[in-house]
Design goal:
This protein is mainly alpha-helical and about 450 residues long. The protein folds into 2 domains: about 230 residues, no CATH class; about 180 residues, Hypothetical protein af1432 (Orthogonal Bundle). The chain is about 65% helix and about 0% strand. The protein is built from 20 helices and no strands. The protein starts with a helix and ends with a helix. About 40% of the residues are buried.
Length: about 450
């Protein structure tokens, strides 16, 4: 039954995928046929295309979670205003193909979809811009009105196609895909409008060479973002090294924090957490046991079960860890996760005995993931449980020790086979730095790349 259902879902994905491709390229061909190409400024368009490709492939890659240097959408909007819908969509579609096949080496399936999606979005935005009044009113600010509407149309078409195809491909409800990709930081995309207007006005004043005037400040911002990301990675490196050192004394827990963090992020994604929430959850998972630095090795590495007195000492590690994390500014949002990852829905957890409604979703997720990894790891006093046995334990105690929705989500991931790749991490060396979560802006703007 499940196999037949999965086949139907994959069949639906392929139908929608090819429908998007065929309709997208058909729509682009229609727009191009309706456009007069005889009087186009080809050299200027080549300059815009190179700048678009640079924005897509180089400057755009400096995006960090919650922000970005620039968006190629700005260049697309300015191309629409200056050259029309057809040139803009052709440049966008070709840029997506070059980016996919040459710079990022994505699969043909993804490259074709990105090209169709972004070309269709540019074409729809261009036709909208041309149909509205004031689209040629460059002597004043009036042209910003149709440009703003075109930007909204571009984003809407992009979102609808991308969210739909990701939902069908990952077999995740559309609302969860949307919630996962949306964050209020995306409102920064409104900066695309004045940037596009600046490019248009500079071009109208002096020609395509004025793109260089925009390029240099963008390169400066690019270098600034790279420096920011390197500093951030250095901080995480230090924390991860400390976590690795804590686990090095006990081979039974080596890699535990890394695996908990990865499990937690996958569950958080399925439950519709936003990108900033997932990033905080990832840090919380990596740091959840950092408070054990204050616990003696006699307790941490004891080759047997702890006495009641020893367990009381062990129960202080969430509070100690939270106090440590709270002092690190960019990690302070993970303080709650570190402090309360041992709280239980029935109120019998520690350190504060919080009940179900008082515990955040992130804390519930870490509680489940921490227990799952502990159960599936060897201990001095017992062998590791199988994944199936650990899942049975989670189900047995859901609603009391573990959050019901989180346990159900983990079971769904396991039954869909999405947990298998995560379990394989147990056989791999633990890196010092966890790979960063892709930013929501990149996910939406570049498509399924």
């Amino acid at each position: 039954m499940d196999t037949q259902r999965d086949r139907r879902k994959r069949w639906l994905f392929h139908v929608v995928y090819w429908a998007f491709i065929l309709v997208g390229y058909g729509f682009m061909a229609y727009v191009v046929r309706q456009h007069d190409t005889a009087s186009l400024p080809w050299l200027a368009m080549v300059a815009f295309f190179v700048f678009l490709l640079l924005a897509d492939s180089r400057l755009g890659e400096s995006q960090v979670s919650g922000g970005r240097v620039m968006s190629s959408k700005s260049i697309v909007l300015s191309s629409i205003a200056l050259f029309g819908a057809a040139p803009a969509l052709v440049m966008e579609a070709i840029s997506a193909l070059v980016r996919g096949f040459v710079f990022r080496h994505t699969t043909p399936r993804k490259a074709l979809f990105n090209s169709a999606m972004l070309g269709t979005a540019a074409g729809a935005a261009g036709l909208t811009y041309e149909a509205l009044p004031w689209s040629d009113a460059f002597a004043g600010p009036a042209f910003f009105a149709p440009l703003a509407v075109a930007m909204l149309v571009h984003s809407l078409v992009n979102h609808v196609m991308l969210v739909t195809i990701i939902s069908l491909d990952a077999q995740v409800p559309i609302e969860r895909v949307y919630q996962r990709g949306f964050s209020w930081s995306r409102l920064r995309s409104l900066l695309d409008l004045p940037f596009a207007g600046l490019v248009v006005l500079l071009y109208m004043q002096a020609g395509a060479w004025t793109l260089l005037l925009v390029l240099f400040p963008m390169l400066a911002l690019y270098q600034s973002d790279r420096l920011y990301q390197r500093n951030k990675e250095a901080h995480i490196n230090s924390i991860a090294a400390l976590t690795t050192a804590l686990e090095a004394d006990e081979p039974y827990t080596h890699g535990h924090s890394y695996r908990v963090a990865k499990y937690a992020v996958e569950i958080g994604k399925s439950l519709g957490m936003t990108e900033p929430e997932l990033e905080t959850l990832e840090y919380g998972g990596l740091l959840h046991d950092i408070g054990k630095i204050a616990i003696t090795n006699e307790i941490i590495c004891k080759p047997g079960r702890l006495t009641d007195a020893e367990f009381e000492v062990m129960k202080t590690h969430p509070t100690i860890g939270a106090d440590i994390v709270e002092q690190i500014r960019f990690l302070s949002e993970a303080t709650d996760l570190v402090r309360h990852h041992h709280e239980r829905p029935d109120g019998r957890g520690y350190p504060n005995g919080l009940a179900n409604g008082e515990i955040s979703l992130g804390c519930h997720i870490l509680n489940v993931c921490d227990a799952f990894d502990a159960m599936t790891s060897d201990r001095p006093y017992r062998k590791a449980l199988t994944v199936e046995q650990a899942m049975e334990e989670l189900v047995r105690f859901k609603g009391t020790q573990f959050h019901t929705e989180v346990v159900d989500c983990m079971l769904q991931l396991y039954h869909r086979g999405e947990f298998d790749s995560l379990r394989d991490m147990r056989l791999q060396p633990t890196p010092l730095v966890m790979p960063p979560t892709a930013s929501s802006e990149e996910t939406v703007h570049t498509g399924a790349s």
